[in-house]
Amino acid sequence: MVLLDIMKIPVDDPVAFTFFTGYMAMLAASVFFLFERSQVDGKWKTSLLVSGLITGIAAFHYYYMRDYYMATHETPTALRYIDWTLTVPLMCLEFYLLLKPAGAKSSFMWKLIAASILMLVAGYIGEAFTDGSTAHSVKWGVISTIGYVYILYSAWAGEAHQMAAKSDNPAVKSGIRALAWFVLVGWAIYPIGYMAMPGGWLSGVFAPNDLDLFYNVADAINKIGFGLVVYGIAIADSKKAA
Ligand SMILES: *C/C=C(C)/C=C/C=C(C)/C=C/C1=C(C)CCCC1(C)C
User: Fold this and answer.
1) Model confidence over 19-43: pLDDT tens digits?
2) What's the number of domains the chain is made of?
3) Ligand 1 center to residue 128 CA distance, Å?
4) Which residues line ligand 1 (CB under 6 A)?
5) Is the pTM of this model over 0.85?
6) Which pLDDT tens digit goes with each residue over 137-166?
7) DSSP string of the chain?
8) Looking at the domain assignment, is residue 55 inside a domain?
9) What is the CATH number of the domain that holds 134?
């Protein structure tokens, strides 16, 4: 494999295109969040740091996933799940930081993290240990969805929702509502990608490589978009305080 082969993006390969743009977008977003930390009030600085870490960790993984994909044209399952195992718990931390002034306890964060780990471990087993059968794909997809639904429930009706409802800070209320939408719409793209894998429910509709197309688009929406929402709230709240 010569270098040129892993840098040439064929016109009919949107997966390759999104690996390259995803990498650059994650990197740019990290620089943005980390520099903008100086523009917000002290209480928001940790949130912006965490946003920068999420996109930064993703940028590194995209750097490797991109080359892995270009060299093999296979899905970089392990790298993908290592990235998520670090970044999704950091998103749970983001929920906690937002709700801390409204009385969130660390047990709230650990429950979200536990649910996210269940979601990711089951998803990894579903993908990495696939025998190509629908039974395997569906079984682990369903187990994974239990973790997802827990987080979804917390954001829309459970603990996170209730704490935000009781809060008297409009920034917290709108922040949690925005994050809840990300979990409902943005995160729902991932199971669609998962179902494109061989044996998956949508494997007749999509090609196996489409899995990475869904994951790459979803990552950009959720990691950068989520961070931008937190940033918007931080800026609005900081201006009000000034
Ligand atoms: C930055 C990465 C994020 C926000 C990743 C989120 C991943 C998910 C919400 C994955 C969910 C899955 C299911 C609900 C079922 C099928 C397996 C997964 C892991 C793709």
Assistant:
1) 999 999 999 999 999 999 999 999 8
2) 1
3) 14
4) 84, 87-88, 119-120, 123, 126, 141, 144-145, 148, 187, 190-191, 194, 219, 222-223
5) yes
6) 999 999 999 999 999 999 999 999 999 999
7) --GGGGT---TT-HHHHHHHHHHHHHHHHHHHHHHHGGGS-HHHHHHHHHHHHHHHHHHHHHHHHHHHHHHH-S--HHHHHHHHHHHHHHHHHHHHHHHGGGT--HHHHHHHHHHHHHHHHHHHHHHHT--S-HHHHHHHHHHHHHHHHHHHHHHHTSHHHHHHHH---HHHHHHHHHHHHIIIIITTHHHHHHTTSTTSTTTTTS-TTHHHHHHHHHHIIIIIIHHHHHHHHHHHHHHHH-
8) yes
9) 1.20.1070.10
